[in-house]
């Protein structure tokens, strides 16, 4: 089996800023740059004949439909990334399910078929998330980190005592295609200041990130018979000129090393017989 690479696109645009209470004009303009970045990513993916998965909040979809329509027209997969970009861990179960259903309905209307994938905003699912996904017909999630290259079925019903051993529940029915902050452009490149004055420094050199991400793929190819490497990019982050050069260089080097690029739905199909198209 080929070693898969999924370049996934989190189309946050202004939704992440709004969910964190940032409503200043300059900050929201940084998010709106995602429209420019989306156009650049589509051009790059078309050049390399790649289909990718775009995790889109409902707020992004209804706010920027003209930007998202070409994503569907080019044959990419849309998946749910919440309705707002609020973290499920901070919601009630009813609020979380309402956002999940509302976003799924909007995507189904937009692309003509129901989405089968989900990623929690900020990778902060609740303990109810995978259960809610299963109840609402989702096939895969991409929010957790208990593995790196091997999709797995997260357990339901774990108990985590502070002073005792983990009490394991049973595997659920939603396939996890894991993620990592080490393979995320936001962690590497974006600079943000928190309400408490803390700063996410970002602004790393693309050369360093290229070396790290490529070596992650090379290790997977060397050590594992099969696997899925999940990269996470955001149009408003990766869409800057020098980062687009970095991304294309990465694609070319991974192709030379034997990578097969795929959507998350295609990756899930290879690992899970539950995907029926």
What descriptive keywords fit this protein?
alpha/beta; 14% strand; Glyco_hydro/deAcase_b/a-brl; PgdA-like; 277 residues; TIM Barrel; Chitooligosaccharide deacetylase; 11 helices; 5-stranded parallel beta sheet; 3-stranded parallel beta sheet; NODB_dom
Fold topology:
Layout: E1 3-10, H1 15-19, H2 25-47, E2 53-56, H3 58-63, H4 65-73, E3 77-80, H5 93-111, E4 117-118, H6 129-135, E5 140-141, E6 155-156, E7 170-171, E8 175-176, H7 185-189, E9 192-193, E10 199-200, H8 206-223, E11 227-233, H9 235-238, H10 241-256, E12 260-261, H11 264-271
Parallel strand pairs: 1-2, 1-11, 1-12, 2-3, 4-5, 5-8
Antiparallel strand pairs: 6-7, 9-10
Notes on the structure:
It holds the Pfam family Polysacc_deac_1. Belongs to the polysaccharide deacetylase family. Helix content is 43%, strand content 14%. It has 11 helices and 12 strands. Strands 1, 2, 3, 11 and 12 form a 5-stranded parallel sheet that branches. It has a 3-stranded parallel sheet with strand order 4-5-8, covered by helices on one side. Strands 6-7 form a two-stranded antiparallel sheet. It starts with a strand and ends in a 6-residue tail after the last helix. The mean pLDDT is 92.
Please give a quick description of this structure.
This protein has 277 residues and is α/β, with parallel strands linked by helices.
Total number of beta strands: 12
Q: H/E element string?
A: EHHEHHEHEHEEEEHEEHEHHEH
Estimated helix fraction: 40-55%
Q: CATH architecture, please?
A: Alpha-Beta Barrel
Considering the protein shown, what is the CATH homologous superfamily? Glycoside hydrolase/deacetylase
Major sheet attributes: 5 strands, parallel
**How many structural units, i.e. domains?**
1
Shape category: globular
User: What is the terminal separation in angstroms?
Assistant: 20 Å
Radius of gyration: 18 Å
Q: What is the average of the pLDDT values?
A: 92
